[in-house]
Amino acid sequence: MADQSTDARGDMDQRYVEAVERHFEVTDAYFERTTPTFIVKTRGKGYRQYIMKDAFKALADEIRPIRYMPRIRWIVDNYHLSILERNPEFKEDYSRNIILFAATVVTVFIDGYIRSNNPVLREVLMKDTPVFLNALLFTFAIVTIFGLHELGHYAITKYRGVDASMPYFIPAPPGMGGTLGAVITQREPPVNRDALFDLGLSGPITGFLVTTVMGVIGMSLSFVVPQNLVTQWMIRFPEIRFQQLPMPKLLEIIADVIKPTQEGMVLVMHPVAFAAWVGCILTFINLIPSWQLDGGHLIRALVGRESHKIISVAGVLLLVISGYMIMGVVVAFFLMREGMESIEPLDDLSSLSLSRKLGFLIYFSIMALTLVALVPI
To answer: What are the φ and ψ backbone dihedral angles of 186, each rounded to 5 degrees?
Structure first.
């Protein structure tokens, strides 16, 4: 670190120097290696942390258009505010996004066709409906749930002016749902813990709403039939394996309203209803408070870096006891790798706002409604 007794503001870009001075009281300036850094105090009266949080966000918004972003730390009884250069404007090439999206549509459609080409649907329950149409409906439901989940993240990053990629869909072999989901790449850290919370919740809440809509549509297209009829089908179509799926509370509520199942009756789910079931799994897993999952971002925003690591281990255990052993192993593997924890905000000193803390009621509610336990718990 350079000598802090010599104010280095004259050697810095005056655009961000003036911006810093507008929002903070600067007591000194220096270069930390090549990074311009200011020792600052908050202006005004009141709770210091809230004043600093608002001032920092205002500064970040002001200097972002000139390709800078601030970072603040607490070192030896002082706020040290560094000015970082943003990456050059990224010119997005959407060809990979389009290719992956097209490949995912194909694999999901094939998966949906296999599921829809069920003799019970094809020859009994929906003999006047082409298999092709049911496969298209399944494809639309899956791609919409997964896609809008990621677009929820993308929308919040664009709203905040943060550089992020469009969603990349991940195709998977038919029989596994046809897709492993979609991801976006955020190329810059969030401004503060509030922004990290918003990033984490925006995807699941969007995906949850879309899953609910698909659940309503899917249950409307589903069937309630007598148990003895299912037994006859098992004899008539021995190639079909009838399986009772563990239902998330969300789909149970929808089914109770739209397709109530009396004793001795069985619910036969339409492919769109199955897509909603998959959407519940997607939402639940993403809300696990571990690693760089959406739930990991939410918990990181609430408790900070060190406590997040401890809670991440509990999240892995929750995956395992819920029946997601493979996913638990994958998350545990990445947790053990250096630098794979949740994103660190530029302002990691300010606490989460009260409104976001109350937002955890939404987080826990969605998690409870979408829990699909693959083993009894």
So the answer is: -95, 120
